[in-house]
Amino acid sequence: MNINQLRTLVALAECKSFSSAAEKLFLTQPAVSFQIHSLEEHFGARLVDRSGKRAELTEEGRLVCDFARQTLQLLAEAEYRVSQLSCHVRGRLLVGASTIPGEYILPHLIGAFKEKFPEVQISLEIGDSSEIRKKVLDQRLDLGVVGAVANQAQLNSTKVLEDELILIVPPGHTWPSRAQIAPAGLLEENFILREKGSGTRQVLAERLKEVGIELADLKVVMELGSTEAILTAVEAGLGISVVSRWAADKALALGQVREVRVVGLNLKRDLFVVTHKQALPNRALEEFQTFLTTFNTQSLSRAAG
């Protein structure tokens, strides 16, 4: 028996699926099956009921899993305390992010963090905000950076950066350069939205509601799954949209789209780090969280440049 077999059993108990446990552990499904089989041989008992659609632990499996969780907790605490004494930070972090922080911000931050802690390995996964929060909740990610606060009681949310959403229009749009429009003006134009689950879409819906406009009131002509696709569609004259300034900076500088100010509509938002409240002690995770919360926008601009 080894510690990896215990990790596999705990992951299987949480995921209820050999394939999902394999994905969480970055293993193949046969490797997960082999580790569970080896653990069952060690205890001389069937630990997992494979007869149904979901993998469920037997009574013996639940007993072993309880002790496995305790063992992993103690091991994590030991590793954490040793790292404190030695001032040596190492390990692997699974980080998730929604599109804006994942594509435009975190790569620079991770590079700066790696200069300080070169022995920490970081994997970055990009998805929409709801997907990233769900994976942190399921403890398939150590940390997420998203554009909307987490409402789940099991998650902690900490503000790390500010972002501003801006209205962009095609270069040849009838609204004059540096135009300022009222929120009601949005209702007259073809509108391009991000997909459901996007933090940008969630914030836009909330801010429009504050001025008496529902998202359903917009003349939505398409929904797209990435900010780059939206920038391209707006440039092509297919409609107008609201995107992050982080994402639009290059297109604005090249004259591919134009910014129009919406008077009376607050489109500033915060970006949040979300973590699980019951995460095991992890020195690398702790240092990365501290790094994110103290790394200001000015430093980010220098890193990006």
Write a structural description:
Strands 3, 4, 5, 6, 7, 8, 9, 10, 11 and 12 form a ten-stranded mixed β-sheet that branches. A two-stranded antiparallel sheet has the order 1-2. With 305 residues, the chain is an alpha/beta fold. 46% of the residues lie in helices and 23% in strands. Helix 1 crosses helix 4 (59-86) and helix 2 packs across helix 3. The chain has eleven helices and twelve strands. Strand 1 (48-49) and strand 2 (56-57) form a beta hairpin. Mean pLDDT is 88; it is low at 301-305. It has two domains: 3-85, Arc Repressor Mutant, subunit A, CATH 1.10.10; 89-305, 3-Layer(aba) Sandwich (D-Maltodextrin-Binding Protein, domain 2), CATH 3.40.190.290.
SSE layout and pairing:
Layout: H1 3-15, H2 18-25, H3 29-43, E1 48-49, E2 56-57, H4 59-86, E3 91-97, H5 99-116, E4 120-126, H6 129-137, E5 143-146, E6 155-169, E7 180-181, E8 190-194, H7 199-210, E9 219-224, H8 227-235, E10 240-244, H9 245-253, E11 258-262, E12 268-276, H10 283-294, H11 297-304
Parallel strand pairs: 3-4, 3-5, 7-11, 8-9, 8-10
Antiparallel strand pairs: 1-2, 5-12, 6-10, 6-11, 6-12
Helix pairs in contact: 1-2, 1-3, 1-4, 2-3
- Name the average pLDDT: 88
What is the rounded distance between the termini?
50 Å
CA gyration radius, whole angstroms = 23 Å
Portion in helices: 40-55%
Structural class: alpha/beta
**Proportion in β-strands:** 15-25%
Uncertain runs with pLDDT below 50, 5 residues or more?
301-305
What coarse outline follows from CA principal-axis ratios?
Answer: elongated
Tally of separate helices: 11
Q: Kindly identify the CATH topology of the largest domain.
A: D-Maltodextrin-Binding Protein, domain 2
Largest sheet: 10 strands, mixed
Q: In oligomeric terms, what are we looking at?
A: single chain
Instruction: Please indicate the count of domains.
Output: 2
Q: Give the C-level CATH assignment of the largest domain.
A: Alpha Beta
Please report the total strand number as a whole number: 12
Order of helices and strands: HHHEEHEHEHEEEEHEHEHEEHH
- In CATH, the architecture of the largest domain is 3-Layer(aba) Sandwich
